Amino acid sequence: MGRLLNAAGLPLALGLGLLALVPALTRAGELDLSIDLRAVSSNATDTRLDGALGKPRYDSAQQGLRLGYLRLGYRGDLSSTLRFTLEAVSYGDHDVNPIDLTEMYLEWRPVPSSAWRSRFKVGAFYPEISLENRMRGWRSPYTLSSSAINTWVGEELRTIGAEYSLDWLGLAHGHGFEFSTSAAAFGWNDTAGTVIATRGWGLNDRQSTMFGRFANVGGPLGSRTLFYDDLDKRAGYYLGASLRYRGLFELRGLHYNNRANLADGSDIIQDYAWDTYFDSLGARWTPSEQLTLIGQWLHGRTYFDTTAPTDAWSYQSRFLLASWLQQHWRYSVRVDEFNLQQTSCNFCSVATGIGFWLGDDGHALTLTVQRTLSDHWNLALEGLTVSSTTPMRNFLGIDTAQRERQLQLSLRYER
Amino acid sequence: MSISGASGGAIEGAVVVAEPLQPVARTHAPQKAVMDQHNLMFVPDVLIVMTGTAVDFPNSDQVRHQVYSFSPAKKFELALYAGSARSPIVFDKPGLVTLGCNIHDNMLGYIWVTDSPWFARTAADGRLQLHDLPPGDYNVRIWHALLNESGAQLAQHISISDNQSSTASFKLTRPLRAPTHNHGADRKWADY
Q1: Residue A135 touches partner B, C-beta closer than 8 Å
Q2: Strand A274-285 relative to strand A249-257: parallel, antiparallel, unpaired?
Q3: N vs C: which end of chain A shows fewer Cβ within 10 Å?
């Protein structure tokens, strides 16, 4: 309990202080607050947050009562079509800032006068890639831990730039289908690829923050001090598209490329450019009000260093999620598969035995039962088991094959 | 009046309007009506009003909505709001008005505006009764939000005599479209 209070004390005090501002802020927009407290049992190895390779959010040293998160969201209207969104969060861990931002952006969304509508976003926000992280604060209503794919998205990807979207609002025009396309240009994501290449995949709900130093404690391949950094002054881009049918089915695809220049980096702050690109395809099917089925696939590559041969990694993951809603109860099950393979290595030598090729191969099962207690309270119990073989664990002197289990009981308050 | 689907099952919630084919004295004044927004849905999903009706759009959700329509029968937009509605919108032209929310694209609602004072929606058994129609000829039209067809089968001619009742039965030729879903639970906090 003392550990929880030590970790959560300052964020909770900040949260309570902000509560006092609620009346003024809600007059100008929407302010919402979430507090998630957890009781955790885990046998996992040291976490990614500590620079290690544990896949669940909590390791065996972090069992007991924990702060899941304290979150504050604000949506203010600068005009009837210009909206300001801010998401702040505290995880009560040892990140440099006790509370930090995960998103902050302006969105211009004119009221449609025909079936076509343009949208324009500028700031820091998530690309429209996840079909499970759909609650405010990019949280999942289905599970406590995100899939491997969206854990990585939460850890390393943020659009810090501008996005233009064009929607065709077929439903309001008497049709069954709707579609959207979007294109974005961004900076400050040159280091995307560091976590996936050096830590492999994870399954947790710990998003990186705009000014935080998540996983900066060192680890097998050195440390990093900035998470969102622009080293090469060259914009990356992504192109996305989605197709929706009457709210029953949605297909969503994204091609991402940070176009990082591998020649750029900063030895002083030990951040390096990683040239990272991927494709993602996902679908969500809601055949009834009770049942939701989600599947997503992602495959990409990342490159590091200009010294021949350039280090290269290939990574892919996929998951299937089924969720059943029965009045106040929600039952969810998700199966993840993930793989990371270094395909080129300039410090590895079979002949000399120096170095080895990095990789990460495994699967996970997540079972979550939730009970809505009232309009504001929610209780969730989640079991997560992750089996993986990760040669990088050799750096830490632990078995490369691990089966990690985590049980979380979450009590969440939303207002 | 009864409406059955292509496979014979009852059609609930269909709009039925009896439009007089001869001039009738306007004895019904338009009433005020309410189209609420609750759990990211328009409630009711379909509202029938007489031409000239003022409709209030309260917001019972904890999130803001921005209601709009670009239907020819009524183009309008309500600035972002929460809680009680702004000024009501007067629907002054007959026709179908499709409602959307600029913040929540899955929200969909309909207002059927008619010059006739004789309208209702079918009950769960696909039936309804319209009362106090003056003697005369009427064009009875039906419509449903999930209708997947058009054609002559959606209208019938009936005649009403003094103190007599008349019946009409409609049978759709194609199944209704699947109903839309609005993501199940946690709608209050949905944003992505």
Answers
A1: yes
A2: antiparallel
A3: N
Shortest distance between the Cα of B35 and any Cα of chain A, in A, equals 17
For residue B69, list chain A residues with Cβ-Cβ distance below 8 A: 172
User: Would the CB atoms of A172 and B100 count as touching at under 8 Å?
Assistant: yes
Q: Best of A111, A142, A150, A371 to disrupt the B interface by mutation (most B CBs within 10 Å)?
A: A111
- Spell out the domains of chain B, with CATH numbers in brackets: 1-24+123-176 (2.60.40.1120), 29-116 (2.60.40.420)
Question: Mind listing the pLDDT tens digit for each residue in A368-386?
Answer: 999 999 989 999 999 999 9
ipTM of predicted assembly, 2 dp: 0.82
What is the band of A97 on the pLDDT scale with cuts at 50, 70, 90? confident
- For the residues A114-127, what does the mean pLDDT come to? 95
| All structural domains of chain A | 40-62+111-414 (2.40.160)
Contact A409, A380 (CB under 8 A): yes
Is the pLDDT at A344 greater than 90? The verdict is no
CA A399 to chain centre: 27
**Can you read off the two tokens belonging to residue A218?**
């060192």
Q: Residue B97: list chain A partners with CB under 8 A.
A: none
Q: Identify all chain A residues contacting B75, using CB atoms and an 8 Å cutoff.
A: 113
| Average pLDDT of the residues in B136-162 | 91
Residue B45: pLDDT band with limits 50, 70, 90: very high
pLDDT of residue A222: 47
Quote the tokens at residue A346: 């300039």
Residue of chain B whose Cα is closest to the Cα of A130: B192
B8 at interface of A, judged by CB pairs closer than 8 A = no
Q: Do A77 and B68 touch (CB under 8 A)?
A: no
Contacts with A372 from chain B: Cβ below 8 Å: 185
